[in-house]
Amino acid sequence: MSSFSVRFFAPQQPLLPSTASSFKPKTWVMAAPTTAPATSVDVDGGRLEPRVEEREGYFVLKEKFRDGINPQEKIKIEKDPLKLFMEAGIDELAKMSFEDLDKAKATKDDIDVRLKWLGLFHRRKHQYGRFMMRLKLPNGVTTSAQTRYLASVIRKYGKEGYADVTTRQNWQIRGAVLPDVPEILKGLDEVGLTSLQSGMDNVRNPVGNPLAGIDPEEIVDTRPYTNLLSQFITANSRGNPAVANLPRKWNVCVVGSHDLYEHPHINDLAYMPATKNGRFGFNLLVGGFFSAKRCDEAIPLDAWVSADDVIPLCKAVLEAYRDLGYRGNRQKTRMMWLIDELGIEVFRSEVAKRMPQKELERASDEGLVQKQWERRDYLGVHPQKQEGFSYIGIHIPVGRVQADDMDELARLADMYGSGELRLTVEQNIIIPNVENSKLEALPNEPLLKDRFSPKPSILMKGLVACTGNQFCGQAIIETKARALKVTEEVERLVSVSRPVRMHWTGCPNTCGQVQVADIGFMGCMARDENGKPCEGADIFLGGRIGSDSHLGELYKKGVPCKNLVPVVADILVEHFGAVPRQREEAED
Q1: Is 26 a catalytic residue?
Q2: Domain contains 314
Q3: Which domain, by its residues, includes 570?
Q4: Separation of alpha carbons 233 and 244, rounded Å
Q5: Which reaction is this enzyme known to catalyze (predicted)?
Q6: Is residue 292 part of a domain?
């Protein structure tokens, strides 16, 4: 809103290559998008008129642009969802019974749609009356106190209460009931957390390097930037209507590692570290996304911003998308569709005119991410840049934890580290700042020996799974338990000598990001040997992450889930050098 103002302080900038002792900058590269937007497109001047306007502090779609809009846009027009938070509407909802809430369209839309602006997702299909709550956890950094609070929330819901580490370095907690929400929100605020603007047409959790500040090889500490982004997006957890009425969801990351742990190619905006004329800053990638109908890698904006302009640039891109983005068919409302329509140069010019200085510098050729870099495994024990300290990466099978697990993780973070935990996009957890004198005892803790191993098997360590149909109404198949079971059975059939990343997603919305996996499984309905419908999976093959990233392609359609084990074993033998166990034993 026009009166919105938050003061930000630029993070400390890293050493420039000329002063770093052993640093050799290399130009970053990204694979070409599957469909490259035109560089220049003839765009009618009227098309560039902003489609939203500010009214009483909220941004509303203008009447003349309302023809053909989707149902979600109509719900936003009827009542801005942020009012449930900024005008305390949630307090009134929490006092009503679900029976009464379901009687009226307005309140039913509140619980099924608008509450997503508060990070609350009603599980109408599988957990009627209960909610999943998604947090904002910039860079995946959290504290033991925050972890204990989240454990206390889910514990009261018994078998309905869980927490999941997500593919955006974030927590999602499950089981909450509406009458408890005002108190939960208050508790989140007291421990420095928020769930605000984490769902629907908002900016998702800002992702950064999980080893930020402790990695001896890091380019830049991403934590200050991701924190600033999160503060801007939510106006320091007060609510920011200026960026809360986007055409669709929007993802952002700040890259700080040569390993590209941040997965920049699948973000709507990615900051890629680069110097220019002795100044540190970022080249920019835009438009990466997954959806049920289309997946595209991010492309260069041909722009560079200084470190001081990280927030103004983010604001300008969001405003261009908010003002000009299509609001019809939800399958065509992600930002890359707008870039396609305008062409990258027109889109760039629209971003530039929303910058404070009304211009953007062209991209730098002094990129700092090395092209040839073997991605490091952060699981296990590794030395930090701080002498005498190490971090330990632990495997959380498919990201699922319970209240007692979270309490124990918090205890380990306090006893062995600095009271801090780091979540990763692979659904794992890192305990940083462990004194080397404690390294012998930590891996022997029961939780790490029995449940969350620092040394998982080679196939388990690369396993990722979305929520699946246990809780998600969109999912076609169950994913988490099945992913573990299939992997265990495959490991009994073949021996694998190198990491293979396997991702599971319950539906074509691909929250499990199957297109970036070596082997991806997307839930679908298939037919068994008798021609009867059954749960199945489309199998994707060949996704890559890192500097030579590209998206995987469909390999085999509609494989019944009960037939997946031998199919996966064959894929591992044919494409990944696995050896059948029987042959391996015979050779031994």
Answers
A1: no
A2: yes
A3: 461-580
A4: 8
A5: 6 oxidized [2Fe-2S]-[ferredoxin] + NH4(+) + 2 H2O = nitrite + 6 reduced [2Fe-2S]-[ferredoxin] + 8 H(+)
A6: yes
pLDDT digits (tens, 9 = 90+) for 437-453: 999 999 999 999 999 99
C-alpha to C-alpha distances, 214 to 219, 409, 430, 492, nearest whole angstrom? 11, 20, 11, 37
Q: Which of 116, 148, 249, 330 is catalytic?
A: 249
How many domains is the chain partitioned into structurally? Answer: 2
CA quadruple 214, 216, 220, 222: dihedral sign: negative
Catalytic: 119?
no
* 466 & 334 share domain: no
The C-alpha atoms of residue 67 and residue 156 are separated, in whole angstroms, by 46
288 is catalytic: no
Pairing of strands 502-505, 463-465: parallel
* Percent share of the chain, pLDDT over 70: 92
12, part of any domain: no
Please state the pTM of the whole predicted model. Answer: 0.91
Q: Is 512 a catalytic residue?
A: yes
Residue 249 a catalytic site member: yes
Whether residue 322 is found in the same domain as residue 197 = yes
Write down the catalytic residue from 161, 506, 543, 552.
506
Which tens digits make up the pLDDT trace of 369-418?
A: 998 898 999 999 999 999 999 999 999 999 999 999 999 999 999 999 99
User: How many H-runs (helices) and E-runs (strands) does the chain carry?
Assistant: 16, 26
| 331 falls within a domain | yes
- Give me the helices (H) in 28-169, please: 71-78, 83-86, 89-94, 98-101, 105-112, 144-155
Cα(first)–Cα(last) distance of the chain, in Å?
A: 70
Residue 39 confidence (pLDDT): 65
Q: Rounded to 5, what percent of the chain is helix, strand, coil? A: 35, 20, 45
CATH number of the domain enclosing 519: 3.30.413.10
Collapsing DSSP states into helix, strand and coil, what is residue 416?
helix
Task: Clarify whether 371 is annotated catalytic.
Answer: no
H-only helix segments in 368-515: 403-416, 446-450, 480-493
Question: Active-site residue among 295, 466, 507, 511?
Answer: 511
Count the neighbouring beta carbons within 10 Å of the beta carbon of residue 506: 30
Contact 178, 131 (CB under 8 A): yes
pLDDT tier at 585 (50, 70, 90 boundaries)?
A: low
